[in-house]
Design brief:
The chain is α/β, with parallel strands linked by helices and 409 residues long. Helices cover 36% and strands 14% of the residues. It contains 11 helices and 17 strands. The strands form 4 sheets. Strands 3-2-1-4-7-8-9-10 form an 8-stranded mixed beta sheet, sandwiched between helices. The chain has a 5-stranded parallel beta sheet with strand order 12-11-15-16-17, with helices on both faces. The protein has a two-stranded antiparallel sheet with strand order 5-6.
Length: 409
């Protein structure tokens, strides 16, 4: 059965996009060669999508029957900190073999400037025999999906579009205009791709600043959380960011030093991004340092200490663990000889170094038994005032507890 739209890749980007399209009355098919990995949509929401006509397929032949195809394949940083585009390439090849004239192809996956034109375009053209900009439309749109955000969704978040040609831009804009209230046209593909680069790096650089402030303020005996509370009353020139035990999520900070040689620019642009990543990567170790110091101040050693980790996801009130610092923190605690357990209302089972971590069934009893409880993620269900009373020691890395109720980062 033909559909208007194919969403290729049903992860944290693809499924929410498909949900928005189905809600807008667009006949949508989801294609993924692997299992669905999105954890922000509930089973009930997916059932409602299916009832409204949404279909999931592993048959690439379905891709040849749509007017618009949006590639939402995952991209992650490899061990060498270069962007892994293999899933985008796989999606492009599956689509190219069935690509029809006049189809609009849009890439939403995180990508550095040049990926759409220099990497995806040759795959699509080589596999289809068609020319981008002449026989089919090609565009890039940075995803602005924020999992768990109850205020801003696809419908009320402006969508940036950049096409290979002006006609490509207009075709993609016409599609997104069916989903969102405002479409913003970039000059071209690279401008749209660089929007993603700027937005993600902006977040990482500012979080890094706050993480450095957290360390400084602790050393000075200053309550950083009160400083932030006061600073965010300024109505201009300041946007509040907060420190934490590390930076997780799907947003990828891209340092130009790790871009392909064809994309690099002379010199060392965006050196701040590399420094920000270095600072943010140090935060799990800083949490360990603070934990060991707290235990020592209370006459206990990290070796043999019972440590309870609260919240192991990267974001509050979600089951998504992508990039969460919890696993590294747990691993470092194990190296120190600590006996770790965890509690998270969204994670039924958790493993570190391929070993299962005991899950606390009774939160308050576990906190009372633990020598140290570390809040890594502030889920809404956590009563931090109550936990502070029960816990022998509580380290709050999110600044969510009332002043004086816990040791805060």
């Amino acid at each position: 059965m033909p559909a208007d739209l194919a969403v290729i890749g049903l992860g944290h980007l693809g499924l929410p996009l498909a949900q928005a399209a189905v809600s807008a009355g667009i006949e949508t098919v989801g294609y993924d060669s692997g299992p669905t990995t999105d954890s922000t949509l509930t089973a009930a929401e997916i059932r409602r999508m299916s009832a409204a006509g949404f279909r999931v397929t592993t048959n690439p032949a379905e891709l040849g029957r749509v007017r618009t195809a949006v590639i939402c394949a995952p991209t992650r940083l490899g061990a060498d900190r270069a962007l892994d585009l293999s899933a985008v390439g796989e999606a492009g090849r599956a689509l190219a073999a069935r690509l029809r004239p006049h189809t609009t192809v849009i890439l939403e996956s995180a990508a550095h400037p040049g990926v759409t034109e220099e990497y995806l375009r040759p795959i699509l053209e080589g596999g289809s025999g068609l020319r981008a900009g002449r026989d089919f439309h090609l565009a890039y749109s940075p995803s602005r999906h924020d999992p768990g955000n109850r205020t801003h969704g696809i419908a009320n978040t402006p969508k940036v579009i950049g096409g290979l040609t002006p006609a490509c831009t207009e075709s993609a804009a016409a599609f997104y205009a069916r989903l969102t209230e405002k479409v913003v046209r970039a000059r071209g593909l690279r401008e749209a791709e660089t929007v993603q680069l700027l937005e993600t790096n902006y977040r990482h650089v500012n979080i890094a600043l706050m993480n450095e402030m957290a360390v400084l303020c602790h050393d000075l005996g200053v309550d950083l959380w009160d400083v932030i509370r006061c600073a965010e009353t300024k109505p201009y020139g300041y946007q509040a960011f907060r420190p934490g035990p590390g930076v997780g999520g799907h947003g990828i900070p891209l340092d130009p030093n790790y871009l392909p040689h064809t994309t690099r620019t002379p010199g060392h642009p965006l050196r701040m991004v590399g420094l920000a990543q270095e600072i943010n990567d140090r935060m799990p170790q800083y949490v360990i340092q603070r934990s060991a110091t707290l235990l020592n101040e209370h006459g206990k050693s990290a070796r043999g200490a019972r440590v309870l980790l609260l919240g192991v996801t990267y974001k509050p009130d979600l089951a998504d663990q992508e990039g969460s610092p919890a696993r590294e923190i747990a691993s470092r605690l194990v190296d120190l000889g600590a006996l770790i357990s965890y509690h998270d209302p969204y994670i039924a089972g958790w493993r570190v170094r391929e070993q299962p971590v005991p899950r606390a069934e009774s939160l308050y009893e576990a906190a009372a038994d633990a020598d140290l409880t570390i809040l890594l993620q502030h889920h809404r269900t956590y009563d931090l005032q109550g936990l502070a009373v029960k816990a022998q020691l509580l380290l709050d890395t999110r600044g969510a507890s009332p002043a004086g109720a816990a040791h805060r980062l």
